[in-house]
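Q: 2-dehydropantoate 2-reductase, please. Structure only.
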Amino acid sequence: MRVIVIGAGAVGGVLAALLHRAGHVVAVVARGEHAAAIAADGLHVDGGWGKWRARVSVVGGDAEAADLLVLATKAHDSAAALPEWAGHDGTPVLVLQNGLGGEQAVRDALPNSPVAVGLALFAVSLTGPGRITVTGPNGLTLGGEDDAVAVTEPVLRHALPAELTVTDDIRGAQFTKLLINQVNALPAITGLSVQQTIADDRLRRVLTSGMVETVAVGDAEGVSWGPIGGVNADAVARIRERGRVAADELARRLATGMGDVPNPASMLQSIRRGRVTEVDQINGVIVALGGAHGVPTPVNSALVALVHEVERTGEHLSPADTLARLALALPSTTQD
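A: Structure for 2-dehydropantoate 2-reductase:
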């Protein structure tokens, strides 16, 4: 199969390398030094899924026809990335992103293309131009339109050395991933790994408060919380019933599942590269939907503002400064 991966960063790059290793013809869209390194010497992958080099080609929107497009840009870059691919309208598309919005961008730009959505649980880091390390060799959840899933599922099952779960309710799974992705903002603000932020009692209070808000917003939206990884509707129900106490248990479990290799999360990786993060598509979505349903989201709102501040300044905040800036947004300890 011929596959084009639009956005060969950490997640898109490792998928491109896996597909190439499985015998598919793979081309990627990348930019800057990363694109130059891939064109010169391929994608170099190491970590949890082994060590190999994938000699993929670098292309643009004038590339020849493909059997599958993978949209793996940041969600906020989707609308800008897709117009040059109008000549590929009708080709199935797999959206592989954090946050919401990517699939709608595909439908707007490529109205005849069936759309599948992949939710990656594996953790990967872009460690240099053309170089990717797999720090968490976990699975992927797949759903979406039947025609796109029918093309994508066998390809992923062949290439992915981890569990592939197919769901009939990808929106429910997306909201569960939004809950998990509450771990993302604090590393971007502080410069610490996910494990370090969860280990800090003060920062974990922020994280768990954001999780409680996310569950309240998803419930108001009428979401049927879908399972993703080890997080399911029962875990959400415990947060709904027990608030931050149950969210604290979930946060600790997520950190344990990440192992000892520091996980910077995607937003911190963007900050380190001087790029805009996807905070608006993760925490910002919770704020927007909360506003629509009358659900207060002060913690998520404050996290969005602080991540954008770090984007602008390039300067991280200490845990103490982070807590001071978030003090008014946090619930009192008597509400735990």
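A: Brief note, in case it's useful. The chain has two domains: 2-168, 172-335.
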